[in-house]
């Protein structure tokens, strides 16, 4: 039960890499995915998994939008802000948050503080200042 | 298709030049990370160009192993800076 | 039609590469360069791979894997570089 999202991820990578859906290959893939060691952290919930997928799908067009924004109107100012972590995040979700913030070109997470803060570096247009 | 390859080679020259001329270690690391991802994309482009998928598999493996070495190196440099 | 679209994607990707890589030579802070590099190396490369994917849909599993690992590794490397270059520690 624990970490079946993890298992799913491994199987996805395996099938994408081998691109082969024969029975033997499926057996090898499942065996390897089960045999690889894994960490026993808090089990991820399926609902979380779906939300994660949704957030990633939203993040990609947003990243391209921000890219065009900083290309068309140069952002020359930089500053650092602190952002609060949303409550009750499992380590997986915190990793996802850091990933999403860093993925969009305008913001990069500098540091994650243990007490629930991200240190985020952003670029800004001069006008905003 | 050839113009694509020429353009990528031209783009690759920029980080190489930067890695050569900048003394600051972090700027050099940035240039290296840029070189790493650009060359692996170039491998993919060449494999499409020649329609040779053994080459493509190599490119994909390089991409999926990722820049782990660069990450380790970054941590080592940070630690030596602290000393 | 598909062909034009794929050239468009590759063209956008190469434009991103040049736009994002040129600031590397300038005299800005590491973090500022990191922002433009994430445009170039993550988004630009992703769009080039999508262009290649449209050209050769036959090899989609490999190229999709390339796309996923590109996005994850480049972003994580950006975070690690930002963390380490800003002093790190606690």
Automatic annotation (TrEMBL), chain A:
Positions of transmembrane segments: 12-36
InterPro entries (alphabetical): Cation_antiport_E
Molecular functions per Gene Ontology: monoatomic cation transmembrane transporter activity
Keyword field: Membrane, Transmembrane, Transmembrane helix
Name of the protein described by the UniProt record: Na+/H+ antiporter subunit E
Taxonomy, superkingdom: Bacteria
CC per GO annotation: membrane
TrEMBL record, chain B:
Keyword Membrane: yes
Keyword Transmembrane part of the UniProt annotation: yes
Transmembrane segments: 31-49, 56-77
Keywords: Membrane, Transmembrane, Transmembrane helix
Domain of life: Bacteria
Protein name, per record: Uncharacterized protein
Phylogenetic lineage: Bacteria, Bacillati, Cyanobacteriota, Cyanophyceae, Oscillatoriophycideae
From TrEMBL, chain C:
Record lineage: Bacteria, Bacillati, Cyanobacteriota, Cyanophyceae, Oscillatoriophycideae
Protein name: Monovalent cation/H(+) antiporter subunit G
One BP term from GO: inorganic cation transmembrane transport
Classification via InterPro entries: PhaG_MnhG_YufB
Entry annotated with the keyword Transmembrane: yes
Stretches of the chain forming a coiled coil according to its record: none
GO molecular function terms attached to this record: antiporter activity
Domain of life: Bacteria
Pfam families: PhaG_MnhG_YufB
Alphabetically ordered keywords of this record: Membrane, Transmembrane, Transmembrane helix
Transmembrane segment boundaries: 7-26, 32-54, 61-82
